[in-house]
Write a structure and sequence with these properties.
The complex is a heterodimer of chains A (about 110) and B (about 120). Chain A is mainly beta and about 110 residues long. Chain A is built from no helices and 9 strands. In chain A, strands 1-9-8-3-4 form a 5-stranded mixed beta sheet, with no helix packed on it. In chain A, strand 5 and strand 6 (about 60-65) form a beta hairpin. Chain B has strands at about 5, 10-15, 20-25, 30-40, 40-50, 55, 65-70, 75-80, 85-95, 105, 110-115. In chain B, the strands form 2 sheets. In chain B, strands 2, 4, 5, 6, 9, 10 and 11 form a 7-stranded mixed beta sheet that branches. A 4-stranded antiparallel beta sheet of chain B has the order 1-3-8-7, with no helix packed on it. Chain B is globular and about 40 Å long. The chains are: A mainly beta (about 110), B mainly beta (about 120).
């Protein structure tokens, strides 16, 4: 399984855009990149998934360069409720749903 | 549709006892995975069940076991509890299909405290 590296923490302010970069140098050809969000004492929640280039949904965008060795989760115009831990995961799911979580990035949104 | 339901939400047990946690997946989901979350070790994969069979297993001692029923509901059991087993236990279900990396839906978790 490809190992991921992301910043331990980030601070931001309401209304700003938050970009979290994840490194995954050993990503395999069949691997997808998935981001989850977790609030305290709750289970993680799927945010977005991509394979290459750019993916956008109603809550975030995911940018993946051509070499796929990193990815950037972009949260537009964050609010206080976006304060959470964000996890970057890499895998192909072929053998089932065995998610390998790293340390995640703790994002604190300030007023 | 209803989400993943875990019961109980909170549990206090004494060292040496055993505990059974329950997880009801989203209707139609056949894959159920279990995770342990602690401040020190983070989120760690325990095992995954698919169609009543354990398909993947994490690096946990044999005291941790699980099973899945024909309706996809799953239980995990921890025997001979240790203080270090205190954690948030999370269950996730997904509509897994071979060759796809499907979204996992997590429950609220069961907070187990061992005293």
């Amino acid at each position: 399984l490809a190992k991921t590296t992301q910043p331990i923490s980030m601070d931001s302010y309401e209304g700003q855009e938050v970009n979290i970069t994840c490194s995954h140098n050993n990503i395999a050809t069949n691997d997808y990149i998935t981001w989850y969000q977790q609030f305290p004492s709750q289970g993680p929640r799927f945010i977005i998934q991509g394979y290459k280039t750019k993916v956008t949904n109603e809550v975030a965008s995911l940018f993946i360069p051509a070499d796929r060795k990193s990815s950037t989760l972009s949260l537009p115009r964050v609010s206080l409720s976006d304060t959470a831990v964000y996890y970057c995961l890499v895998g192909d799911g072929a053998a089932g749903n065995k998610l390998t979580f790293g340390g995640g990035t703790r994002v604190l949104v300030k007023p | 549709k209803a989400g993943v339901t875990q019961t109980p939400r909170y549990l206090i047990k004494t060292r040496g006892q055993q505990v059974t946690l329950s997880c009801s997946p989203i209707s139609g989901h056949r894959s159920v995975s279990w995770y342990q979350q602690t401040p020190g070790q983070g989120l760690q994969f325990l095992f995954e069940y698919f169609s009543e069979t354990q398909r993947n297993k994490g690096n946990f001692p044999g005291r941790f076991s699980g099973r899945q029923f024909s309706n996809s509901r799953s239980e995990m059991n921890v025997s001979t509890l240790e203080l270090g087993d205190s954690a948030l236990y999370l269950c996730a279900s997904s509509f897994w299909t071979a060759g796809m990396n499907t979204e996992a839906f997590f429950g609220q978790g069961t907070r187990l405290t061992v005293v």
